[in-house]
Design brief:
alpha/beta, 3 domains, 19 strands, 24% helix, binds flavin-adenine dinucleotide, binds FE2/S2 (inorganic) cluster
């Protein structure tokens, strides 16, 4: 059994062979994490003392240089000895996740096979701009979707790209206004950090635009004059599904720059926002000689997020200034891991005393 000490956290935690992240979760430490599968980098920390076995993870998320400097992903490492660890990100207690019934109150179909769903929860719910919820329709498996709305809005808005033969995609492609669903959340660590004052870059791949809109709107409402760059990346002209709203946002905030990057299209442009015909990583390299002092948020496919992570790091972005929630399908498998974690946590509480209160089933996530 290894002992884990975490900087700025009282006490010593016991690890019996599971990942460091599982130990932290089981002990209610508000350590940042999101995918729990090595895809987002949210759980990055540094080993100050001790040895770990590091499982495989993408180079873009944890580079060779970072490994050499002692950085690890808590969800991908198992202690080989007693450990002293520091979190890269702040230890913040996030709004608690709740599970409740909600209803679809509005639905519209956009080009690019995107459905916009507005959902009314039974009770008001707190979340941070950039977080996501698990939506479970009918008897289908739950799926994660990032919220595009602002905290305090009367309903939650989601942008859902329809995938061929996708289970939830198939369901939301039908008229489902009035249907009930189970809403579970919020989750995720790719949320907006209001304390940061340097340039803010929001990089959205496809429907990764939803959480980036939530972050960009929150940042501009807090300070309309701050420097914000929104990169919207997709493949074809026919994928661009939020053009007029982006244009309206650009007109409202002169310090907001919206860049539309299409990797597979060719001129002439069909929309009103200016286009560039390249990958979003090429655009970042073109626009930024250095990203030192900036904050970057990214959402979309794991492959894009991974490429953005590698690119921004090569441009001097500090690891603590990148925040992502990739749309990883490993997330679905995570429910199993989360169940194990929940059972372990329940066991620990029971060991502390049979009357210690167990939390709700939303801990399953
Ligand atoms: C944190 C997070 C946030 C997310 N936010 C968003 C968001 O805002 N918007 C959004 O559109 N998506 C988002 N996603 C992705 C979303 O959760 C779903 O994964 C996605 O919508 C597909 O769900 P589905 O049920 O329609 O498809 P699934 O049924 O899960 O299928 C997905 C794809 O895999 C294929 N497939 C299914 N089963 C198999 C199999 N056995 N073998 C081979 N292929 C198979 C299907 O044909 C389909 O193309 C997010 C994911 C995460 C983790
Ligand atoms: S939570 Fe560990 S990499 Fe995403």
């Amino acid at each position: 059994m290894a002992k884990i000490e975490l900087k700025d956290w009282p006490g010593v935690l016991e690890n019996s062979g599971e990942t460091v992240l599982e130990t932290l979760i089981a002990n209610d430490v508000p350590f940042p994490f999101s995918c729990a599968s090595g895809d987002c980098g949210a759980c990055k920390g540094r080993v100050l003392c001790g040895e770990v076995e590091l499982q495989s993870c993408p180079e873009g998320i944890l580079s060779r240089e970072e490994r050499e400097q002692g950085y690890v992903l808590a969800c991908r490492c198992i202690p080989k000895s007693d450990l002293k660890l520091e979190a890269l990100d702040e230890l913040v207690a996030l709004p608690p996740a709740k599970r409740q019934t909600a209803w679809v109150v509005q639905q519209s179909r956009r080009q690019g096979d995107v459905v916009i769903l507005n959902i009314q929860p039974r009770q008001e719910i707190s979340f941070l701009p950039g977080q996501y919820f698990n939506l479970k329709f009918d008897n289908l498996p739950a799926r994660a979707y990032s919220v595009a709305s602002q905290p305090g809005d009367s309903c939650l808005s989601f942008h859902i790209r329809l995938l061929p033969d996708g289970k939830t995609s198939g369901y939301v492609s039908r008229d489902i206004v009035g249907h009930a669903l189970t809403l579970d959340g919020p989750y995720g660590h790719g949320y907006w950090r209001p304390q940061h004052e340097g340039p803010l870059l929001a990089v959205a791949g496809g429907t990764g635009l939803a959480p980036m809109l939530s972050i960009v709107n929150a940042a501009l409402r807090a300070n309309a004059r701050r420097e914000v760059w929104l990169y919207y990346a997709d493949r074809e002209e026919s994928d661009v599904y939020w053009e007029s709203e982006l244009l309206a946002l650009q007109q409202r905030y002169p310090n907001l720059r919206i860049l539309c990057e299409l990797s597979r299209a060719r001129p002439p442009a069909q929309g009103v926002l200016p286009r560039r015909y390249q990958r979003v990583t090429a655009a970042l390299q073109q626009d930024w000689p250095s990203l030192a002092g900036a904050k970057v948020y990214a959402a979309g496919s794991p492959r894009m997020v991974d490429a953005v992570a590698a690119c921004t790091r090569s441009l001097g972005l500090a690891p603590r200034d990148l925040h992502t929630d990739p749309f990883s399908d490993a997330h679905e498998h995570r429910l199993d891991g989360a169940l194990v974690t929940w059972c372990r946590r329940a066991l620990r509480r029971w060991q502390k005393g049979p009357f210690a209160q167990l939390e709700t089933a939303s801990e399953l996530e």
